[in-house]
Please model this.
Amino acid sequence: MTSTLQETAINFIAEGTRLEGKMRFGQISRVHGTLVGEVIAETGSTLILGESAVVEGSIEADTLVVEGYVQGDITASGKVLIAGNGRVIGNIRTSALVLEFGAYFEGKCSMEIAAAAAV
Model:
């Protein structure tokens, strides 16, 4: 049997896990634990912060989905989505921001034109 599906690496940080320092993620990463420090998701990747996720520090990502809690500044080259149960305290710099009903955001947002859209 031949499969045409490509394997995709999925990183998973479980609830109850606490990591501190500078963290790098690639492809698809789902976090349910606590991250303290600098969080970097590589270009083309998606970082999903689940309901129990807590991030205290800066985040750089392509696409970021916040269902949990972030205290720190966010820079995203793609988009930031704050879900209805997501909370962000900090500044956001992105080309696209989506706030679902019930989302909490306290800070400033700087919108930038995506490089592809400018061409």
